[in-house]
Amino acid sequence: MTAQMTTLAADIAETDAAGIVAWAHREFGSGLVLTASFEDPVLVHLVATHAPGTPVVLLDTQYLFAETLWLVEKLQQRLKFPLEIVRPLDDVQPDDQWQFDVEGCCARRKVEPLNRVLQGRTGWITGIRRVDGPTRATTPPVQYDDVRQLTKINPLIAWSDEDVEAYIVANDLPRNPLVERGYPSIGCWPCTRPVAPGEDKRAGRWAGQNKTECGLHVTTKATANVTTTTSEGQS
Ligand code: SF4
Predict the structure, then answer these.
(1) Which of 73, 169, 200, 234 is the most exposed place for a label (fewest CB within 10 A)?
(2) In this structure, which residue's CA is closest to atom 7 in ligand 1?
């Protein structure tokens, strides 16, 4: 177990996303940050409500869908959260690298900007859910990221698709229009396609390539009972 590991308060259930977010706010204060893919509005709403003032970071790869940017604007107008749009370094410009080198493209457009964002932070909220796929099936609600030396908080880890839908309806939240067009997992437009009924939710990400994750969630998990190294996909 890593010395810096912070464990979730014992009286907070892993399904209690609001409780986890509020706990993270108390625990990490101004050291807390949320990175959001804006695939859905749930976590941004939870953080704006239960951890007000926490920066919400959008990693702008230069290849985001227009629908995703639309949802960012709609939610920001309504919830007034501090939005940080983080872009690649100046020498990274739109090009065709994604056509022949997806690992290199993700490294320059996602991983490097994320590492920059997380420098000096102590708590990182993500939207990972176990139902996203096999690589996330055993992820705990709180884990220590040995690579970036901070605590990673996954408030939605135990939520089902039905839980997400119920929350959106209950709070009358806007949706990413791509979801109803068959995109249950949304990343950059060159590397995301809709999925067929019955397909894995992330089957549309880097389809046809030997790649299932982009390196954002490479981490060492540490819980009270188990420590394993794993690599998970992007939110
Ligand atoms: S998902 Fe595709 S376009 Fe986006 S950074 Fe990775 S390789 Fe590039």
Answers:
(1) 169
(2) 102
Q: 136 alpha carbon to ligand 1 midpoint, in Å?
A: 20
Residue 188 appears among annotated catalytic residues: no
Domains and CATH numbers, the chain: 17-232 (3.40.50.620)
In this structure, the strands spanning 150-153 and 217-222 are unpaired
| Digit-coded pLDDT (tens) for 77-112 | 999 999 999 999 999 999 999 999 999 999 999 999
Summarize pLDDT for 56-81 with one digit per residue, the tens.
999 999 999 999 999 999 999 999 99
CB of 157 closer than 6 angstroms to any ligand 1 atom = no
Secondary structure letter of residue 108 according to DSSP: I
pTM summary value: 0.89
Q: What is the DSSP string of 168-185?
A: HHHTT----TTGGGT-SS
